[in-house]
Specification:
The complex is a heterodimer. By secondary structure, chain A is an all-alpha fold. In chain A, 70% of the residues lie in helices and 1% in strands. Chain A has a two-stranded antiparallel sheet. In chain A, α10 crosses α11 (236-265) and α11 runs antiparallel to α14 (294-317). Chain A is globular. Chain B is of the alpha+beta class. Chain B has two domains: 3-232, Rossmann fold (3-Layer(aba) Sandwich), CATH 3.40.50; 237-325, Nucleic acid-binding proteins (OB fold (Dihydrolipoamide Acetyltransferase, E2P)). Chain B contains ten helices and 18 strands. In chain B, the strands form four sheets. A six-stranded mixed sheet of chain B has the order 6-7-8-3-9-10, with helices on both faces. Chain B has a five-stranded antiparallel sheet with strand order 13-17-14-15-16, with no helix packed on it. In chain B, a hairpin with a 2-residue loop joins β9 (204-209) and β10. Chain B is globular and about 75 Å long. The two termini of chain B are 35 Å apart. The chains are: A mainly alpha, B alpha+beta. The interface between A and B is medium-sized, with 20 and 24 residues.
Chain lengths: 324, 329
């Protein structure tokens, strides 16, 4: 083929294929390029071992314990398969703990969803550039400091002599606080020893875990969907009900998995802030530590897992994941 | 004839940007009206002003005689076919199409019957149970059309609805949209940056540039009698001739447009020009020519020989093909 000389041909090239980079890295690059599965296996083996043996393995070992029982006289674990320990969960004292914990988890989750939605909506639809960075810092900042410090800080805020009482006094709203504290169950001597206090601290500590997935879900809703809904006659309220909420639901469900299961398993917050009644996490702690009743502790651990299983099954049946 | 949409001195500014600048416009009922212009020319903002997604900074908008400033989109009897179709992914096709009727409180049986009818209108019967993700781009486009038409809007707005389709599908949809518009008699306002699309479909075309309307008229008007250099250049890529050259030809000092297909190669007695390049377009070949320091382009039909690059040829055109643009800057 004859071509006229163009400037490009004046650059001399030895061949159409460049020489290999040489050395071990060059040889490895070529090998992985020819055999991509090898790279995949190399990358996946360590995490698979970690997840499979250390993480899930120890969890199943713990769960297996729940099918053993404890001898009431000797206090020794009897290694015979039985459902006796699960039966103990239904004793009134233990059932109380389960109901208390699940109710708290449900309320914390609902409240977190209500608080997180406007924040996530603002961040996804209006915040740009600097404001978006500020949003992420604002949401994540509480996660950077120690959990114990935050919980103790809340204990001081909620105490009878704390800043919240002071604010209510300055606003001449002491009567409101007093009235709230006289309500049975959720009230108490002060906020720091009431279920209201426990609820507030749970809500504060787990809120970022709800905000981030909700914001991510809303981020994926194009503005044209909202405009299209309005264009077809829907008021903003109807657009929320029929378009925004269903599309954000997978995010809310993802967030609620965090807030719900974290509340179900936590044993620090109810111990520091709130009435001295036990939550599941504290019961597990007490049973496996002081009481040495590993089977009952394991059985308590199974409760949140079963609840989460039912919750996800129900959410899927209700179509929460249809928009994914 | 009733006026469907009218703009009186309408402006929409975004900060310092004048997206729409002092626009006067009147669209008649039952008209197929195209807004043509490059991106950022204000055509889409005009459409959004009609839909109600934007509010004018100043000026006055009426839809069928009713003032619509401060009227939210959900109270306007106007529907939009969005550029990205904006079909709701969590609903199947039938619920997407019936959405507007559901919002109005129509019962399920009636709205599904109406939605099925609309799907038949856009040649997608039996697709109701599918999800938007399972349809091709062309099918989604038809669903978006059905979803808008099922509400029997007074004005249908189309925001570059054919932009994402491949050439063959686009030509087919152009034909279908035009037939549909004639059949339904609804006023269509169509935004596009494709001059071929605007010329082939619309009854009237408004050419936008820099937030202003450059010219409004029938496709023939716009193509054959452009009133400004921009319109001549943007619509049909006419050659725009400078005033001093036009003065030599006609004695009048003004810009003039000359369409490439009007230029003929002749044996003698023409203007002599040097061929500087060519590009093969299939049905014809576009060649670029230099007349002294003036550059123009011409179209050579497929059945004629294309002169070689570098050769000198004689060209000519009919006096009537030279369109003077008096007053154009």
């Amino acid at each position: 083929m004859t071509t006229s000389a163009s400037p490009a041909t004046t650059v001399q090239r030895e061949s159409a294929v460049l020489p290999g980079q040489g050395g071990i890295t060059g040889a490895l690059s070529d090998k992985f390029w020819r055999n991509p599965k090898l790279l995949l296996i190399l990358m996946l083996t360590p995490p698979a071992l970690w997840l499979g043996i250390i993480y899930l393995g120890s969890l199943f070992a713990l769960l297996a314990q729940s099918f053993f029982s404890i001898d009431e006289f000797s206090g020794m674990v009897q290694y015979e398969l039985t459902l006796k320990t699960y039966g103990e969960l239904f004793r009134p004292a233990n059932l109380d703990i389960i109901i208390r914990t699940v109710s708290m988890a449900v309320i914390v989750t609902l409240a977190a969803a209500c608080v997180a939605f406007p924040i996530g909506y603002f961040a996804a639809r209006y915040a740009r550039g600097k404001w978006k960075a500020l949003f992420y810092i604002g949401v994540m900042l509480p996660l950077w400091s120690s959990y114990l410090v935050k919980v103790y800080a809340w204990k001081l805020i909620l105490a009878k002599e704390g800043i919240l009482t002071w604010i209510f006094t300055k606003l001449h709203l002491t009567w409101l606080l007093e009235a709230w504290l006289t309500i049975p169950i959720i009230g108490g001597y002060s906020l720091s020893v009431s279920y209201t206090g426990t609820f507030l601290v749970f809500l504060y500590v787990w809120l970022p875990f709800m905000v981030l997935p909700v914001q991510a879900a809303l981020e994926r809703v194009p503005g044209s969907f909202i405009e299209a809904s309005g264009d077809l006659g829907a008021t903003p309220g109807q657009t929320f009900r029929h378009v925004i909420f269903p599309l954000a639901l997978p995010g809310i469900v993802a967030g609620s998995i965090f807030t719900f299961s974290l509340t179900l398993g936590d044993y620090i917050i109810p111990q520091i802030v709130g009435s001295s009644r036990l939550f599941i996490g504290q019961a597990v702690y007490a049973q496996q530590g002081t009481a040495g009743n590993i089977p009952l502790a394991a059985a308590f651990t199974v409760v949140p897992i079963v609840i989460m299983g039912f919750y996800l099954w129900g959410a899927k049946r209700m179509g929460a994941f249809d928009a994914l | 004839m009733t006026t469907a949409v009218s703009f009186a001195k309408v402006s929409r500014h975004f900060g310092a940007v004048r997206a729409v600048d002092d626009v006067d416009l009147s669209i008649a009922e039952g008209e197929f009206f195209a807004m043509l212009g490059p991106s950022g020319s204000g055509k889409t903002t005009c459409l959004r002003l009609i839909a109600g997604f934007e509010q004018p900074t100043s000026g006055h908008i009426e839809i069928f005689g009713t003032t619509v400033e401060h009227v939210p989109p959900y109270r306007r009897n106007v529907n939009t076919v969005f550029q990205d179709y904006a079909l709701f992914p969590h609903m199947n096709i039938i619920d997407n199409v019936a959405y507007g009727l559901m919002i109005r409180g129509m019962n399920k049986a009636d709205r599904h019957a109406a939605a099925n009818e609309a799907l038949e209108l856009v040649a997608l019967p039996g697709y109701g149970e599918r999800r938007p993700g399972q349809l091709s781009g062309g099918q989604r486009q038809r669903v978006a059309l059905a979803r808008a038409l099922v509400n029997k809007p007074k004005v249908l707005l189309l925001d570059e609805p054919l932009g994402a389709l491949d050439l063959k599908l686009r030509e087919q949809m152009q034909e279908e949209l035009k037939t549909l518009q004639r059949k339904l008699g609804i006023t269509f306002v169509f935004v596009t940056h494709d001059q071929g699309e605007a010329l082939s479909m619309a009854d009237r075309v408004a050419v936008f540039n820099d937030g202003k309307i450059q010219q409004v008229g029938s496709p023939q008007d716009i193509y054959q009698r452009p009133q400004s250099r921009f319109v001549a250049d943007f619509v049909g890529s006419s050659n725009v001739l400078e005033p001093d050259f036009v003065k030599q030809l006609t004695g009048k000092e003004s810009f003039a447009s000359l369409r490439p297909e009007a230029i003929r190669i002749v044996a003698a007695d023409g203007h002599s020009a040097t061929v500087t390049g060519n590009s093969y377009l299939g049905g014809n070949t576009r060649i670029t020519l230099a007349l002294g320091d003036i550059r123009i382009s011409a179209l050579i039909p497929a059945d004629q020989n294309v002169p070689e690059t570098g050769s000198t040829i004689q060209i000519s055109w009919q006096e009537s093909d030279l369109h003077l643009m008096e007053g154009a800057q």
